[in-house]
Amino acid sequence: MVMGEIPEEVDLAVVGGGVGGYIAAIRGAELGMRVALVEKEKLGGHCLNYACIPSKTLIHISDIYYDALHSERFGISTGSISIDPKRMYDWRMSVSKKLEDGVAFLCKSNQIDVFKGTGTFISKSSIQISDGVELKFKKAVIATGSTPTVLNGFGINGKDIMDYKQALMLDYIPKSIAIIGAGYVAVEIGTLYAKLGSAVSIIARSDVLSKFDREAVSIIKKRMAALGIKIYANAEAKSYENKALKLGDGTQITAELVVVAIGLVPYTDALGLENAGVKTDGKGFITVDRRLCTSADNIFAVGDVIGEPLLAHKAMRQGVVAAEAAYGKDVAYDNLVVPAVIFSDPEIAIAGSIENLDGITVKKFPLSALGRGIALGETEGFAKIAYDADNVVKGVELVSPDANAMIAEAALAIEMGSTLEDIADTIHPHPTFSESIQEVAEAALGRPIHFFYGAFGGKTP
């Protein structure tokens, strides 16, 4: 046990100390509950230690390095520039450690009992922890997250075949990388290492980012090609031997390192769910109701372990809801939208849907007409907005620098039932990329300013 004395019984036991779990624990403690948190590895879980934070840290470093090498168009001559992979690794690790320590401090400050070990339910009111402690509880939250999907024939050895977590813990820059998988993880890892100088190949079963808007993806693919990233579409990895990755059609790709990034599966190993009466669906995800309560009426679940979308910020919100529901508040997880961001180059951010469905209209504004985009030389991208017959906003898609920071405006607009007029009439700071959201709303209303859509803004007056 990390901190505190062993309690006879707690009001709330949280299994899993990732972002969903520790937030549930903190919220429960704020409500006056005695809380225990069980974590088998590091507080903060995959997000802080192996995934979200490390990947964005390394993406930031790769952007600095690449931009320094390609700044001539702005009149900047940098001369010889080098990168120290060991210091890069040290910075990446220090960021995670600082955040992990921060979570530990918050747990201690909120008087949360933290146990280091694997938790297994032995009934619907007790957990056996791997250090030998039996923890009794009144309510529980399962927040064990997910784990990388295994690919047959490509056993992870941590040397030349790695999962995405290990690929974000390198203290060297591989000369060549082949990434099996073509989702956002593959795109982010591939782009950052290409910018650092690696020869990158991506093996896609269909195409990269196959579930996303093809117009947006076409911009990303164009940028990836400019970085020298080779995409093998409609391909299947068959074997890897002697630094050669062989595909189903016989193509061989030289790769010093192979990264398997084909998805995630819920982590429920050794949880003993059957002992607590907690049911799962056909894919292994725990089933929950609107209050995030499982089939056991005193046990809740949040985050990746309950299904799509497998995003940290969804787990964070659910952690709050689950803790409040466990306390007895009349709450439900009823968010209309979970925004998604791909930290590609440029970024893609989506809130809601921008599909052309019946009764839905979609409008687009290009970054090539935006002052901020022109000033920074970032004109490849756009803002799209989807709205219904009453001008209520149903979705926003951004392909743009800073899209990660702007998409929350769209999420808030959808949650509040905002209209095009609400966005268009809100003053956005100038010059910023956020103006693209205002511009596309104005265009949808038939009153565009900085892009010509035709007479009367493309609408009949």
Beta content comes to 15-25%
Q: Which parts are unreliable, with pLDDT below 50 for 5 consecutive residues or more?
A: none
How many domains would you count in the coordinates?
3
Report the mean per-residue pLDDT as an integer.
Answer: 96
CATH topology of the largest domain: FAD/NAD(P)-binding domain
The CATH homologous superfamily of the largest domain is called FAD/NAD(P)-binding domain
Q: How many beta strands in the DSSP annotation?
A: 22
Report on the biggest sheet.
Answer: 7 strands, mixed
Quaternary form = single chain
Q: In a few lines, what is going on in this structure?
A:
By secondary structure, this protein is α/β, with parallel strands linked by helices. It is built from 13 helices and 22 strands. The chain has helices spanning 19-30, 45-49, 52-69, 85-109, 164-167, 184-195, 214-226, 273-276, 312-327, 371-376, 403-415, 420-424, 435-444, and strands at residues 10-15, 35-39, 113-116, 119-123, 126-129, 134-142, 146-148, 161-163, 176-180, 199-203, 230-232, 237-241, 244-247, 252-254, 257-260, 264-266, 299-301, 340-342, 347-352, 361-366, 382-387, 393-400.
